[in-house]
Design goal:
Length: about 240
């Protein structure tokens, strides 16, 4: 259903070589996304070329700026229909990926897609601010990532508790990334993070995107993450 040549060419611009198996998997993913979207509201992006650029390539841009080692662990917080985590798994099947979301029915679709493309990942139904206190998740990951879940300040409170010291929180953001970064400055430091770099790029005719890399330099204090209500009332 998708234009595989477009996906291949755009991925090459990111320095990625997708083989035929990966291209087939992305094709199946797009087909299932459209199919399930008629039953469960997953995404407003449904035109095949838009799926390629605004979901797949947008997710894969992570790999242009950050190259996880073979077998690295990564948690995608608020994965929704699998972005960026499931797209990363297709491009890099060696990664040990956890896909977390608070909406159970979306995770049912993710499980179905994983089965159809013959890949496995840990699919976790949880709220990030609760799972962040569970020792089986807390400070267990080489990478945490998220796209379109929250502002960077609150997102840092969701994501940094999952990251091991020496690991990274990679945030996929849009044109307002620099302002978000200013607003999140105190939170990032409080939670044990240090901003390493921000890469800003144009997503093939779809506008400006940014990838923010935050290194985990010290343990997150025990009291974080806080319940959502507290984050809203007392922002860091
Ligand atoms: N990351 C996907 C993407 O870029 O297409 C989905 C984005 S969607 C706008 C936000 C997702 O985050 C939803 O699926 C929602 O259920 C999930 N979410 C929001 N708050 C969350 C939380 N505190 N913990 C876990 N998931 C959360």
């Amino acid at each position: 259903m998708i234009n595989k040549e477009l996906l291949k060419t755009e991925s090459e611009k990111l320095g990625l070589k997708l083989d035929e198996i990966a291209l087939e998997r992305f094709d199946k993913y797009a087909e299932l996304l459209v199919y399930w979207n008629e039953r469960i509201n997953l995404t407003a992006i449904l035109e095949p070329d838009d799926i390629v650029l605004k979901h797949f390539v947008d997710s894969l841009a992570f790999l242009k700026y950050c190259s996880p080692e073979n077998g690295a662990s990564l948690i995608d917080v608020g994965t929704g229909a699998g972005f960026p985590g499931l797209a990363l798994k297709i491009a890099r099947p060696d990664l040990n990926i956890t896909l977390m979301d608070s909406t159970k029915k979306k995770l049912g679709v993710i499980e179905e897609i994983l089965k159809e493309v013959d890949l496995s990942a840990n699919v976790v139904h949880a709220r990030a601010e609760e799972a962040g206190h569970d020792n089986s998740f807390r400070e267990q990951y080489d990478f945490a990532t998220a796209r379109a879940v929250s502002n960077l300040r609150d997102l840092s409170e969701y994501c940094l508790p999952f990251v091991k010291i020496g690991g990274r929180f990679i945030s996929l953001k849009g044109a307002d990334a620099k302002n978000e970064l200013d607003e999140a400055d105190v939170a990032i430091k409080t939670l044990g993070g240090k901003v390493d770099k921000i890469d800003i790029f144009e997503l093939s005719g779809c506008g400006e995107r940014a990838i923010i890399q935050i290194e985990k330099v010290s343990n997150t204090p025990d009291k974080y993450p806080r319940p959502k209500g507290k984050m809203v009332k007392q922002p860091l």
